[in-house]
Specification:
Number of helices: 5
CATH class: Alpha Beta
CATH architecture: 2-Layer Sandwich
Largest sheet: 5 strands, antiparallel
Shape: globular
Number of domains: 1
Distance between the termini: 38 Å
CATH topology: Alpha-Beta Plaits
Helix content: 40-55%
Order of helices and strands: EHEHHHEHEE
Radius of gyration: 15 Å
Low-confidence stretches: none
Amino acid sequence: MTEPHDWPLEQPAEGTLRPWYLTATGYLVVLFRDPAEAQRAHRGLIERKVAAEELRLYEAEEILRRVARLQQERSILAKAVAALVADPGAKSRFMDNARTGGSALWLVAPTKDRADQLVVLLADYSYSSLRYYGQEGVSDLQRDAD
C-alpha cells in the first residue's frame, strides 16, 4: 500500500504565501469536460493497476468549493504573490472547466517517466487538457476540440 498524499487542492492556504499550484510538484492533472468520462478514466486506471491512493477525482462543485475556500483563507500578500506567479491560461482553463461542470483527475507522478506512463494509460479517454507539475517545471498537453 502506498502512503497517503497531501493533495495540493486540499491543503490550507492560511500561513503560506505559495498558491496550491506551486505545491503540486509530482502530480499530473487531467481535465475532463464530461464528468462521466472522468469517472470512466478513474475506474480504468485502477483496473490497469494504478493504486487508488494515487488518484483523486474532483467533481466541478468540489473544485469550486475548494478554490473559493483557498481564496478566502489567503492573505492579501499571498493573493498578490499568486497574481504574480499564476499562469493565466492554465488558471482560466482549470476554472472554466469546473464552472461548466467538468471534472479534474489528479494522479501522483513523482517522476517524468511515471507521468509518461500515465499519459499512455490515459490515451483511451477523452480529456480536454493534461498538465504535469514536475521537478523541472510544468508541461502541458492539450487536445484540440472535437
